[in-house]
């Protein structure tokens, strides 16, 4: 994918202040990838600001987002973190209510209830103790380890800031998630970043939908945190940790399909793609590994000739999260609900076909970026993932990320419609945070308050 982006980058189309925007927003996830998430707590405002000063030289700007020659380091803050840094009261009040409340307090809007409720989350998520989130990712182990060492050396120099969580993640050249499916194929492109239109990715979306301080799809600049130096060129980031029950998924496939080919077909129907990444729209009956690996073809398709979902079920995970040109029963502008996904897998893919819990921690760190990330993810979770009204499927939920709890239903249209019952919750929520992703000028401003 990085080669594709280098080929389509057009400097004459750059209108964003790329050198002030953190690279994670625009840079494609490396292939393969190695990385670490670090969560920090600030004991003293002075220590927090001193740490930020030391981290700024390590933070990667989006100036060369289309290249993957260096490790990417990202720094983000929770609302409690900004408070701990003693931001001016006027600035704190200028943040959206959803961000100020935090993810745990918004659990009902996110459909984080029952087994996904905050009371079951892993510490320190949802406790108010998480103040700073650092993400480091690279395409080689050597680059990742070098950047991580730099960050850890700076952390050692500061007393008054403590590490709450340090979690590594990685993926091979196939970039598969723990369920064995190629991941991270489809992301929107941002107008003004220098990108030319990519086959299958649609037109670039207005920058203001993802980066603060620029016009959005409505043609106006939305309100953003103040003063300007704090908010402009920033964004919001939603971080959610999931534990994936791969053995339950495999058990479900074996229960409802006899042969291995039939099981793979059912799995593709539930995801919307084959494990290789080939979309069902272009490979309706059989996986096509060459197509799945082709970044110029594996996202170049439409649903306009499949409005009934006979090829790609309306309720499959991929079509729910990006309906594209599907005619929806509850009308909404798809471009207003797009997010930039930078999710990464942890724990590794288990033995093929495993049907018993091997006790290993594995799953997904879901990372979503948008100028309205909190509102967008709350919409996706409540309306598209855990309801079916927008596709005339009643209370049917997403078969992969929905809160199904053994009662889930999955409808597969066809000449003979099939309904699969008793779907489990295959991805259990283990915690998360709402974060602010400031521009580099904002980082400097915060550190000098």
Report on this model:
This protein is of the alpha+beta class. It has two domains: 2-242 and 433-447, no CATH class; 243-337 and 352-363 and 371-430, no CATH class. It is 25% helix and 20% strand. It contains 14 helices and 13 strands. It has helices spanning 2-8, 45-55, 79-84, 89-93, 97-101, 107-110, 141-156, 228-231, 246-256, 260-271, 289-292, 317-321, 373-385, 440-447; strands at 9-14, 33-42, 72-77, 132-138, 161-171, 193-195, 235-244, 340-341, 344-346, 363-370, 408-412, 418-423, 427-437. The strands form four sheets. Strands 7, 8, 9, 10 and 13 form a five-stranded antiparallel beta sheet that branches. A four-stranded antiparallel beta sheet has the order 3-4-2-5. A hairpin with a 5-residue loop joins β11 and β12 (418-423). α2 (45-55) runs antiparallel to α14. The chain starts with a helix and ends with a helix. The model is unreliable at 1-7 (pLDDT under 50).
Q: What is the subunit organization of this protein? A: single chain
How many discrete structural domains? 2
Count the strands? 13
The proportion of residues forming helix, as a percent range, comes to 10-25%
Helix-strand pattern: HEEHEHHHHEHEEHEHHHHEEEHEEEH
Rounded mean pLDDT score: 94
Structural class: alpha+beta
Please tell me what the overall shape is.
globular
Q: In this structure, how is the largest beta sheet organized?
A: 5 strands, antiparallel
Distance between the termini: 40 Å
Q: Please state the CA-atom Rg, rounded to the nearest Å.
A: 21 Å
Percentage beta strand:
15-25%
Which parts are unreliable, with pLDDT below 50 for 5 consecutive residues or more? 1-7
